[in-house]
TrEMBL record:
Highest taxon, organism lineage: Eukaryota
Source species: Candida metapsilosis
A single GO BP: GTP metabolic process
Name the UniProt record assigns to this protein: GTP:AMP phosphotransferase, mitochondrial
Record keywords: GTP-binding, Kinase, Mitochondrion, Nucleotide-binding, Transferase
Function summary: Involved in maintaining the homeostasis of cellular nucleotides by catalyzing the interconversion of nucleoside phosphates. Has GTP:AMP phosphotransferase and ITP:AMP phosphotransferase activities.
Annotated GTP binding sites: G14, S15, G16, K17, G18, T19, R135, I144, Y145, S208
Entries under CDD domains matching the protein: ADK
GO cellular component, one term: mitochondrial matrix
Region (LID) location: 134-171
Domain named Guanylate kinase-like: residues: 4-220
PANTHER family xref list: NUCLEOTIDE KINASE (PTHR23359)
């Protein structure tokens, strides 16, 4: 990675963005990671002015408005001086819509730090639903197991503590299909926006071992 890489990783829920992100961060230690969910939770926990504002929306069941989310993400980048020192970074979870993308781009453009690569993980959604049905979690630690490709050593027991594994309420095909439907409604406009900017790339596959080498190759290029 010879020049700054400002990367957005996109994909349907359950497509493996978290797994791919971890492998990228291990391969490219200079790549900074910004998760919109982590930033939001941190701001709320620290009681910042923008965190308080965001929490009010969440408590009322409303979505956090786009301008607030843009301020959260760009504020995080500014705090670490990642907008002006030509740092390399990876965005996860934001933007999710073309409107958010437009607003984020307007801010990044002011610093000459526009995104220069957007990678969509193209995974068969039938495969995603099957993954979800076979997914179990150790709630205290967050360790995730798949009965198919990462089963616990003892059925339905955590490998480290031996405690029972649980099934999250939304880890079933019917509930998860609704999340996929929402993603599918929004992704086309977002895809077209970044295609027009000439920075959209797609990698296809049904496992992280197939997808990751393609992503690494793009980042290296």
């Amino acid at each position: 990675m010879l020049k700054p890489t400002r990367l957005l990783l996109l994909g349907a829920p359950g497509s493996g963005k978290g797994t791919i992100s971890k492998r990228l961060l291990k391969k490219f230690p200079q790549l900074q990671y910004i998760s919109s969910g982590d930033v939001l939770r941190s701001q709320i926990a620290n009681g910042t002015s923008i965190g308080v504002k965001a929490e009010k929306y969440l408590k009322s069941g409303a979505l956090v408005p786009d301008p607030v989310m843009v301020r959260l993400i760009t504020g995080e980048l500014q705090t670490h001086n990642w907008l002006t020192n030509k740092a390399s970074w990876l965005l996860d979870g934001f933007p999710r819509t073309s409107n958010q993308a437009h607003q984020l781009n307007d801010v990044l453009e002011q610093y000459g730090s526009n995104l220069n690569m957007v990678i969509e993980l193209d995974v068969d959604q039938k495969v995603i639903l099957h993954r979800i049905e076979s997914r179990y979690v150790h709630l205290p630690s967050g360790r995730i197991y798949s009965l198919d490709y990462n089963p616990p050593k003892v059925p339905f027991k955590d490998d480290v503590t031996g405690e029972p594994l649980s099934k999250r309420e939304d880890d079933n095909a019917e509930v998860f299909q609704k999340r996929l439907d929402k993603y599918n409604e929004k992704i086309q406009d977002l895809r077209e926006y970044y295609q027009e900017l000439g920075i959209w790339r797609v990698v296809s596959g049904n496992t992280s071992d197939i997808i990751y080498p393609q992503v690494e190759k793009l980042v290296n290029r």
